[in-house]
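Obj: model holo form, ligand = zinc ion.
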Amino acid sequence: MWRLFSAWLVVRITGSIPLGWFGGDGLVEELAVCPLCSQVSVDLEHILAFCMGTGFLRGTIPISEDTDVVRWVLLGSDDVDTLYKQVRYFGTCIVTCMHAAKMHA
Ligand SMILES: [Zn+2]
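Output (holo structure tokens):
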């Protein structure tokens, strides 16, 4: 969890995709191709908020339909349960994406 939390903090600062924390290489602003849905030139917003490959995860977080998912994930909270959900959602989305990338490699 601390590893996820450190990745989440870096993402809050950079807005980039922290592949280096998840078995990949460094921080990147975008992926040439999304390993989950094959859309080209995708950024963090795609992975967290729009990719159909992470859509099943969005049902696990306490947001309404009109919530800006990226803003919610990166906002942080002084409520530990909410903070845990934000960091865990972020981490699970990236892990899901990285896992798919390894399957395609
Ligand atoms: Zn995608």
